[in-house]
Amino acid sequence: MATLNSSLPYQGSVPYLNLNGSDVLKSLGRFIQPADVLSYLWSFVTIWRLLVVLLVLGNLKNIPLMWHLRIVNAFRFACKSQRPKVPVTWEHIFQPLITTNHAPIMEIDFNLHKSNSSYFSDLDVARTHLVCTLFSKGLEHFRGGTAAMNGSKEPLFGLALGAVSCSFKRELKPYETYELWTRVLTWDEKWFYIVTHFVRKDKVVPNKYSLYPQQGSSGAKDSKKSGSASITDDTLSNKAIVATALSKCVFKQGRKTVSPALMLKISGLLPVMSLDETPSPQLHGDRDQASLQSSRSSDSGIEMDDSKEMRDLEKIENERLRGMSVATTLAAQAQDPLEMEFTAEGDALGRHTDGTGITGVVSTLAQLAHLTRTQIL
Question: Which segments of 32-91 does DSSP mark as H helices, in order?
């Protein structure tokens, strides 16, 4: 019998099978200390915090209120202390203002390209930069100052967007840098038409920077020389252009419209003789025919004669008319028939939910995971 017992395996391990719950906890306590648990949790939290920080830093352009901050940054160029040292004149009316941007991961679509919808927020900022730079004197005149709260009792003055269109030609890859070349294309009795070209960075360099001559330093010249062949080829074949947008804007003081000709004149972009000598604001309501009391040769609201100033204005008018032939796609004559295409009466295909909010997210995941038998529209 003794021989049989001595042959049993694991004889020395049998006493350990009699451990109770407290003994097990004591044994585990020798190996797992509270400090180890806290260290593990801290490492786990730190990793997630690091990922969140990297996500925010890589998408600063898309965090909440960043769009508003970008607009405020553009507003500052209307302040006297932030205006260019070179006075703005009629020669600058049709010149573009260049802003630089990039496509963060939050703006990338399923095709790993910059999403089409994200172009329009860039347009808002680019237009604001152009308007606050060219029309800073006019903004100051109608607002009664450049301060955010100037105490003026006049109705709120600002720029309203009436229409915008954008055509997409080439893709922008994640974090690719691009430039927005924004300029005044033309205007009529009521509307300004502003064109913006999305251009690959450093593919095209202007001959000079008329309002900021210091930017035309050796760096810009070297960039132009090094890419001269690319500049020529890309400009001729439009390979540098990624997208083109056209915006129709109007200056408003309350519900009244300020004509483009008057805004140009008060901003110092037209000779005083081109309009009535008195620079009092001539405003008209939305439904009134947009006009100025002075005589004119076209719908621009600008008077024309044979003086030297008028010869300069003739150059402006020729460029305005050339641009107007391009801007007709956003003119009222083209938009009104499109508006009439709204089929308010008749049959419809149905209704779908957009998928936003907690309900939308839960229902979408439930449908994809086949967790519900009934279809959620």
Answer: 34-57, 66-75
- Alpha-carbon Rg for the chain, nearest whole angstrom, is 33
Q: Reduced to 3 states, what is the DSSP secondary structure of residue 272?
A: helix
Coil, strand or helix at 91 = helix
With a threshold of 0.70, does the pTM exceed it? yes
List the beta strands (DSSP E) in 43-138.
97-102
Distance CA 69, CA 244 (A): 25
Residue 192 phi, psi dihedral angles, 5° rounding: -95, 140
**What does the alpha-carbon distance between residue 324 and residue 100 come to, in Å, rounded to a whole number?**
27
Q: Which of 292, 298, 289, 290 is CA-nearest to residue 280?
A: 292
User: b or e along 228-255 (b: 16 or more beta carbons within 10 Å of the residue's beta carbon)?
Assistant: eeebeebeeeeebbbbbbbbbbbbbbee
Walk along the chain (377 residues) and give the pLDDT tens digit of each residue.
445 454 444 444 444 445 455 555 455 555 566 666 667 667 777 888 888 888 888 899 999 999 999 999 999 998 888 899 999 999 999 999 999 999 999 999 999 999 999 999 999 999 999 999 999 999 988 888 776 666 667 778 899 999 999 999 999 999 999 999 999 999 999 999 999 999 999 888 899 999 999 988 644 545 444 444 345 455 544 789 999 999 999 999 988 999 999 999 999 998 655 444 434 444 444 433 333 333 344 555 555 555 667 778 888 999 999 999 889 888 777 888 888 888 878 888 888 888 787 877 888 888 877 777 777 66
- Phi/psi at 60 (nearest 5 deg)? -60, -30
Which of 196, 197, 185 has the alpha carbon at shortest distance from 331?
Answer: 185
> Distance between the two ends of the chain, CA-based, in angstroms?
79
Q: Rounded to whole angstroms, how far apart are CA atoms 158 and 32?
A: 66
